[in-house]
Design goal:
The complex is a heterodimer of chains A (78) and B (349).
Chain A lengths: L3 H9 L24 H15 L5 H5 L4 H9 L4
Chain B lengths: L1 E5 L2 E10 L3 E3 L9 H11 L3 E3 L7 H15 L9 E5 L10 H8 L7 E5 L5 H14 L5 E9 L17 E10 L5 E7 L7 E2 L16 E2 L5 E2 L5 E2 L1 H22 L9 E4 L4 H11 L10 H4 L6 H9 L7 E10 L3 E10 L2 E2 L3 E2 L1
Parallel strand pairs in B: 2-17, 2-18, 5-6, 5-7, 14-15
Antiparallel strand pairs in B: 1-9, 2-8, 3-4, 7-8, 9-16, 10-13, 11-12, 15-16
The chains are: A mainly alpha (78), B alpha/beta (349).
Chain lengths: 78, 349
């Protein structure tokens, strides 16, 4: 079972300009300056690669915090 | 399950034509904040695109590509038995554009003509139709014209779609001959109909209101006559289906990824294609891109890429895998064995 810490690390790796240390489980990721539709695509790609989970646009739209994303992924990990 | 193999049929020649007018994504300052433009161009991999003039249609681009193909390969119009026109931007709602092209190209009245309508996967599906006809007794040559002018159905104030799309027309000549087997693996999932859609049609009849620009999701502006795309859902669909579809068609042909000479993807955006390359562990030099010059030209992007990047590289025997995916949702891959395929370089309209 992948841990939340590992998920946060994978998530933070997708950002270039944002300091990784500022990204926590309770971070409202859409409020990050660097958040964009392209980073959203990277999140979908990362979740496919690392967790083999198909993540849809609504999964991102319905998530507010990094922890919300993690919960959505974990609910579908087989 | 649509898993098809053809014997003794192949692609004899291919050509493409793009509009003369160039638009540059660096000039999209009105749509995307200046500080983000470089990053967007870098990610989608599209520097410039070709946009058809108001009075130029997909069939005009295809007509010119077909003329070039027939000239370069000394093809007698009388020898064409079937003409297929694959497009979602035809000349008219009635009649089928293929009929107009038959007359314009001087093909005989005995030519079988019809149009095929499908999204960015269209070339692969239309090519399977062309191969099917060319396999039949009584048919020797099929001319497949695949062209799109998405610039006419994308709103310039839609920041998801406008930076992506360009226009192109292509011609592919399919005929009987001493070719190795070719395989197609074709798929559909209509539950994703809303992911890529133009709302107006006969389900939602066109009224004066259909032409009114409205602000939609994330500030994008469009009318009901213009394309909507849910970028995240389409991306998720593509990355989950396309690499598997390529593997499937290669495996079913009894080959491996290493046996492929070229893998030609629908030129969706570079970020997505780079993901496929990584996932399939194929050497990047086997995967030609022309997206930086022409953008995403919908279904015509596969033959356009071949014309643009492989015009002097298809002598002798080659194994080419092509993969298309898009609205429907619809996706398919083909493994085509070519023999001295004559590819004309891209011309301008």
């Amino acid at each position: 079972m992948e841990s939340l810490d590992r998920f946060i690390e994978n998530f933070a790796d997708l950002f270039e300009e944002t300091d990784c240390d500022t990204i926590k489980a309770n971070t409202h990721f859409k409020e990050l300056d660097e958040w964009s539709s392209l980073i959203a695509l990277s999140v979908i790609a990362m979740i496919d690669e690392e967790y083999d989970v198909e993540f849809r646009g609504d999964d991102i739209r319905n998530s507010e915090t990094v922890n919300d994303l993690y919960d959505a992924v974990m609910s579908r990990v087989e | 399950m649509a898993n098809i193999t053809f014997h003794n049929v192949g692609i004899r020649a291919l050509s493409a034509c793009v509009p003369h007018d160039v638009v540059y994504n660096k000039d999209l300052g009105y749509l995307i904040p200046d500080e983000e433009i470089e990053k967007v161009i870098d990610n989608i991999g599209i520097v410039e695109r070709r946009i058809a003039a108001d009075d130029v249609t997909a069939s005009d681009l295809c007509f010119k590509a077909a003329q070039q193909l027939m000239h370069d390969n000394d093809i007698n119009p009388e020898s064409i038995d079937v003409l297929l026109f694959m497009s979602q931007t035809p000349d008219y709602r009635i009649p089928a554009t293929s009929c107009i092209l038959q007359h314009r190209l001087g093909l005989p009245k005995s030519t079988l003509c019809f149009d095929i309508s499908l999204g960015c996967s269209g070339y692969i599906f239309a090519l399977s139709t062309a191969f099917a006809y060319a396999s039949m007794d009584g048919i020797n040559r099929v001319l497949l014209l695949d062209g799109e002018t998405f610039s006419k159905i994308v709103n310039r104030k839609d920041k998801v779609d406008w930076p992506l799309y360009g226009d192109a027309g292509t011609a592919t000549l399919i005929e009987k001959g001493d070719f190795g087997d070719s395989s197609f693996f074709l798929n559909t999932d209509g539950s994703g109909e809303d992911d890529l859609k133009i709302h107006a049609g006969f389900r939602n009849p066109i009224t004066p209101d259909s032409c009114v620009e409205r602000e939609r999701e994330d500030g994008n502006i469009r009318t009901d006559l213009e394309v909507f795309m849910d970028g995240m859902d389409v991306f998720n669909f593509a990355i989950s289906k396309v690499p598997k579809s390529v593997k499937e068609v290669v495996n079913r042909a009894g080959k491996t990824i290493d046996d492929i000479d070229y893998l030609v993807f629908h030129q969706s955006n570079r970020f997505m294609m780079d993901f496929f390359v990584k996932k399939l562990k194929i050497s990047p030099e086997k995967v030609p891109y022309c997206i930086s010059k022409y953008g995403n030209t919908s279904s015509s992007s596969v033959p356009l890429t071949i014309s643009s990047e492989l015009s002097d590289r298809l002598d002798g025997d080659k194994t080419i895998v092509m993969s298309g995916f898009g609205a429907g949702l619809s996706w398919g891959s083909a493994l085509i064995q070519t023999r001295d395929c004559k590819v004309s370089p891209v011309i301008e309209y």
